[in-house]
Every structure is written in C-alpha cells, then in structure tokens.
Amino acid sequence: MSADTTTSVPQAGTAPRRRGGNGPFRVWLWLPPLLVLGAVIAVWFAVSASLGSRSFILPTPDRILGVFLREDTRNEIFAGMGVTIQTMLAGLLAASVIGIVWAIAMSQAKWIERSTYPYAVILQSIPILAITPIIAFWAPDGFTARTIVCVLIALFPMVSNTYFGLQSVDRSHRELFKLQKATRWIVLTKLQLPAAQPAIFAGLRISAGLAVVGAVVGDFFFQQGVIGIGALLRKYQARLQMEELFAGVLLASLFGVAVFLIFGLIARLAVGKWYDFG
Amino acid sequence: MTAPSTAPTDTTTLLDFRNVEMTFPNGTVALRGVDLTVKRGEFVTVVGPSGCGKSTLLRIASGLESASDGTATLATNRIGYVFQDATLLPWRTVLANVELLAELQWMTIAERRAKALKAIELVGLSGFEKNLPRQLSGGMRMRTSLARSLTLDPELFLFDEPFGALDEITRERLNDELLKLFAEQQFAGLFITHSVSEAVYLSTKVVVMSGRPGSIVDTFDVPFPMPRDPDIRFTPEFGELVGQVSHALREGHS
User: Fold this and answer.
1) Superfamily covering domain B13-78+154-253
2) What residue of B is the nearest CA neighbor of A170?
3) Which of A274, A275, A277 should one mutate to test binding to chain B, selecting the residue with the greatest count of B CBs within 10 A?
4) Which residues of chain A does B144 touch, with a Cβ-Cβ cutoff of 8 Å?
5) Is the same domain home to A31 and A166?
6) Which of A121, A147, A219, B17 could crosslink A228 through cysteines, CB 3.0-4.6 Å?
7) pTM score, two decimals?
8) DSSP-assigned letter for residue B124
9) Contact B81 A273 (CB under 8 A)
10) CB-based contact B91 A194, cutoff 8 Å
11) What does the alpha-carbon distance between residue A252 and residue A230 come to, in Å, rounded to a whole number?
12) Residue A183 clears pLDDT 80, i.e. is over it
C-alpha cells in the first residue's frame, strides 16, 4: 500500500529512507494509526458514557465485541457474513469473466469497441439502487438477484482495466511479433494478455472492493432465501439491536479491508516479480 | 564495388533496393531514389543525420513497411532485427526471452531450448538465464536481444541504432562482440547508426545519407581486415576514413 510513505516522520540527521523503513524506525509505520485508533476508542467510551440512559444508541466497544462472545448472535452474524462472501465471490467471478471476455472482444475488433464500450460507461453511471426493484422483479431467487447487483457494480473496472492493459502493448513489441508473422491468437496469448496482467490485477482489486459493496447492498434489498449480512443489519436496525448492528457493521468493514489486502497480495504474487505497483 | 578483404566465395545479394522512395500519407518524403545492396559477407552501415529516414530504410528492408515506389527485394527469409531498445518481454526470464522468436516459429521445445542456450553463451550471458530483464544492465539487455535474434540463424541482420542508448564503454565492448559474432556466424549486416566511428569500425561498407528526404550521397569501402583489432581505432588510416565520412555527412546535410 502506498500509505506507508505518508506515515513516515522526518528524522533529523537520518538519510532519506526507503518506503517501508527498517530497524527500529518501522515502529513509525504502525504506531501513529494505532494511536489514532486508541484515541477514537477513548472518545467513543466517553461519548457513550455521557449519553446516560440513552447510551444504547452508541454501545461501548466492549459490548459490541461481546456480541461475538455470545454463541447465538455470533453464529447468526457469521452465517450472514458467509452468505455475503458467497455472493461477493460469485459476483466477482462473473464480473471478471464477463469483463475480460468483453475487453478481449473489443481489443480484437474496433467495431465492437465502438458499439459496446459506451454502454460499459453507462453501466458504470447507473445508480444501482434505482434498478434493484427491476432486478428483484426479474431474478428467479435472492441469490441470483444479489449476484446480479454485484456484477453490475463490479464489472466496469474489469472491462476498462483489461481493455486498457491489452491496448497498452508497446509498438516495438507488436512489431517484434509481426516480424515473425504471429497470428492474432498468438499476439493475444503471448503478448497482449501477459502484458495486461498488471492492469487486470489492479482492476480485480478495485472490482473486489466494489463486489463487497454490491453484496451488502444486494443483501439489504433481497431478503428472500438465506439472508446475508446486509439483511441482518436491516433486521437489527428494525429491532433496535444496536450492539448486534454495530458488530455486523464492524465485521462487514473488516471483510472489506481483508478483501483489499488479499487482492493486493494476489496481484503482487502474480506479477510483482516483474511489475511494480506504485 | 571492391570486395571486402575477407570476402567469402559466395557473394549472393541478400538485399537489393532499387530506386526506393518512401512518402508517408501525411506527405512527408522520407526516402528518395535509394539504391542499396547488401551481399553475403558484407556489413553495411548507414550513417545520416537524425530524421533522415535511416530507420525507414530498415523497416522497408524487414517488410514492416512497404516502399511507395521502387523495389526492395529480400533474397532470404532468415532475417534478424534488432530494435533501438532491447524490446524484451518484462515477464519473461532471459532464457524465455531468447526462446521467444524460435517459439513463434513453432520450433520444438527441445530445439528452441538448445538454440537459446547456445545463443546466450555466444553473447556471454551464461549464468543469467533465470534473470528477469529488470535485473539486467542496459548492455546485458541488448545482448539478450541479440541472442534472441541469433536463435533464428539469420542470414541478414538488421540493426536499428541498437547501441545508441548505451554508454561509450558498453557500446565499444558490444561493437567488438558484434564483430566477433559477424566473423563466426557469417551473417550479413545492415546497421543504422549516427556515430561515424562506430560505422567505420564495424563495417565493410559505409553508406552516407543526406537529410530529409533521405538519399544516398556517398559510399565508402572500409579496407581494414576482419577480424578487427580494437586498437585500429587509434591508427591514422582509421582517423582519415572517419574524417572523409564525416565530411560527406556534412556536405549531404547542408
């Protein structure tokens, strides 16, 4: 992550450090955000205490964590999270396949790019909440509906990044292949797709983050079948179960962060050997 | 035309340009009335000011572009082309990069592996097979690029200012190694450069081009025997020839 360069604290008399730092100075990478976290928790306790009899609207962090210690609520929230993760993975997989195939088609024929790319852009600008009623009406079941929401929200970065990556091949590399009379298929598989990998993995990371949003939003709207975390949150909200609500939000947020880190790691493992993500 | 001093018996013409013209769609005339031949055993270098169409000449020779008038005949399909930069694929190791062209020619894995390893040895990169291009210096990348072309056993090698971006010392070393390869591998060469001393040192024949539109203003045969002693660069004869070529270059430019 690029954040680690911004948390460095200037040290008198030390040479400019490389990103990440080393030795005892590493502490400056994780200490400041931890201090902020500590401060936020302290303020949280203070505000909650000051609310007196109305403190249920902002339960203290220990009570929120307590939700995970009670077996019934823990199981309920984890099961909901499991459903959401399934939706998110299904949506991300579908968005990746559709996005990559679409981008390849556009890279192979200009007319496909001309006639379909504007719709990818339009897709991106559709307010997803506005079309969920239509999806709800058409989809055969809740899971399909939620997955469609996920795909709609996560598709664009896959399409645009893959297409950009496929088109980014150097002219001299193309000529190198042209001199050997390489076919389109060979150019695609041995030159364009490998060259597009960094862009594809960057797109996958963005799409994964969006797929999390899509899955939670999808849950929120489609309550049929096994319910996900989004639907649980709605339930807790309706019943004023604030501790459970906060616990659900916390878990969903941690999942979002985990997805961001995991897909960053995947990208680095896949192409980090030869490509530097900025 | 006098034969070079180490002329092999076979002097087939590999590349024949007759009255080649190149006009780009935007109206720019890049080449005008170019006559040029490259025979087996020859190493021809084209020098000229920047933007005179030297690279266009090479692109026509390789078939990347076709002349708008005149004829360009290539008598072999075994050509090597070395670009201005090394054009290595960053995700492939040195070995996989060197294997690339053979792979695109559908050689078997065993065949291309053997050819690649031999080529890597020829350019002195043994031991670096598993390195990625980013771990190599500019000179080593260019050697990898040379090795890649060598796997095709080219009869005609086309070089588009390949050492232009390298430092002086690396450049001179690569010049020496190129001459060694030329002697061992028996390919003919067409080399583009803007360095007069590089041109004279490498070639059996130096062709001087004028500024745009590019046309040939003079041709010099280089009499020094192959293989060349690097110290030849410090002899008065060498200096004299460099002076003559430079003079022709200036005349053509004005």
Assistant:
1) P-loop containing nucleotide triphosphate hydrolases (3.40.50.300)
2) B87
3) A274
4) none
5) no
6) A219
7) 0.83
8) T
9) no
10) yes
11) 9
12) yes
